[in-house]
Amino acid sequence: MTEQYDLVIVGGGISGASLLYTVANFTDIEKIALVEKESEIAAINSHHTNNSQTLHFGDIETNYTLEKAEQVKEGAEMLAGYLENVDPDRELHSKRSKMVLAVGDEEVQSLEDRYYEEGFGDLFPKLDAIDRDEIAEIEPKVVEGRDPTEEMLALQTPDGYVVDYGDVSHSFVEDAKEIDGVDVFTGTEVTQMDDTEDGYIFQTDAGWFESDAAVVAAGSHSLQIAKEMGYGEGMSLLPVAGSFFLADDFLNGKVYTLQMKKLPFAAVHGDADVHDDSVTRFGPTAKLVPALERGELSTVSDFFDVFGLNVHSFLSYANILADRILLPYVLKNLVYDLPEVGKRAFLPHVQKVVPTAELDDIDRAKGYGGVRPQIVDTENKTLDMGEAKITDDDVIFNITPSPGASTSLKNAMRDTEHLVEALGDDYEFDKEGFRSATIEHFPHAETADEDDEQAKAPAQDD
């Protein structure tokens, strides 16, 4: 027997869960299924140990252009507004100070230019430029033991949302399951997806599903499924695995270091864990792996399905990895996973944030870290630093490197608009209701002065 739906969503991470929440609550699409191959929702990259728990606004990410920051900001405010609305007790997230730190004349000048000249201070009204003394008040360990003659500057904001994206995914799904017509299937792998005259048919290990429209939000596997259906020509993936190191409670909030604009990977930063502020997490590293999931050997063959084993893919990888900035970075990151040697090699990154940190203070976070699929444009033989989306009339494939989790609700809003239009005049999207449930709860600068002052305090966990 084949189950019939208006919409099938493949993938139960933060991307698929956000879309399920949005479509179920704010459209009149009646029959919706979410299909997840793992036994639990958000068990892979959205799990809190497999990402840096950061809600990216673009304010302290110094490899973002102003244009990208403007795009990311609205999406982050949507998710932050949702959390302010449904999670007042801070069970899914915490809110702490966050800052990007500049040390030395050159870095300080770069950060000053960014804040005053490039427009980031205007775009983010809560973002303050603070000096050594103010930094020491918020993050004592960042200043302790540092050369007192060394120039220091930080851009600091109270909007340091630390998010358990796995728990947020569960929140989205549990909300949607309360609505008639919504079915959620876990432990159910899609083994084949095909076009039909009227939509799509899915073969799964739990039976067959049919739908009028489909969205594949399966991380790295999204491009694999797209290619099997004839989409995604001219695209490949560069899977990057991130690892972390753990220390005691060095930091009260999140402290970033300046990032290299040419790299799509986050610079090493330190932040207190979302559920345990007595633990500070440092990372991530960035290691290239020939697999679509961290530690899953079965996904090595999946990677080669996506890679394509053709001349264009090989030349693209060669061109990307020959870059004089990227190649040394990739090789250096391989060292960090080695026993003892890796910890010693990583320590200077920790000491850039916490000068007094010693080798015995940090340990490799075993079992932490996921895979971020960076997009390769095999036609231009370049690395695409943005999110990727393949869209046809009634199907969407989402391949979302960082900050895909941060902008998951904004992506869901765009996808919902597309789906409603594709499904026809019988369906509508209550965009006003969606914004009322999300971004309208975000505390903007003009209404949040008291909250901002409180969030400048060392810790804001409830």
Description:
The chain is of the alpha+beta class and 462 residues long. Strands 1, 2, 6, 7, 8, 9, 19 and 20 form an 8-stranded mixed β-sheet that branches. It has an 8-stranded mixed β-sheet with strand order 4-5-3-12-13-14-11-16. Strands 15-10-17-18 form a 4-stranded antiparallel β-sheet. It is built from 15 helices and 20 strands. A hairpin with a 4-residue loop joins β7 and β8. It is globular, with a radius of gyration of 22 Å. The longest helix is centred in the first third of the chain and has 21 residues. The termini are far apart.
What attributes does this structure have?
8-stranded mixed sheet; 34% helix; 15 helices; 24% strand; 20 strands
Oligomer: single chain
Count of strand segments = 20
State the low-pLDDT regions, or none.
454-462
* Class of secondary structure makeup: alpha+beta
Largest sheet: 8 strands, mixed
Mean pLDDT equals: 91
Helix content: 25-40%
Separation of the first and last Cα atoms:
49 Å
Strand % is: 15-25%
Radius of gyration: 22 Å
Instruction: Please count the helical segments.
Output: 15
Name the overall outline. globular
What does the secondary structure layout of this molecule look like, with pairings?
Elements: E1 2-10, H1 14-26, E2 32-35, H2 66-86, E3 93-103, H3 105-117, H4 120-123, E4 128-130, H5 132-138, H6 140-143, E5 152-163, H7 165-177, E6 182-185, E7 190-195, E8 200-204, E9 207-216, H8 221-228, E10 235-241, E11 245-247, E12 254-257, E13 269-272, E14 280-283, E15 287-288, H9 300-307, H10 311-321, H11 326-335, H12 341-353, E16 363-364, E17 371-377, E18 382-384, E19 388-392, E20 395-399, H13 408-423, H14 431-437, H15 449-455
Parallel strand pairs: 1-2, 1-9, 2-6, 3-12, 9-20
Antiparallel strand pairs: 3-5, 4-5, 7-8, 8-9, 10-15, 10-17, 11-14, 11-16, 12-13, 13-14, 17-18, 19-20
Helix pairs in contact: 1-7, 1-13, 2-13, 8-9
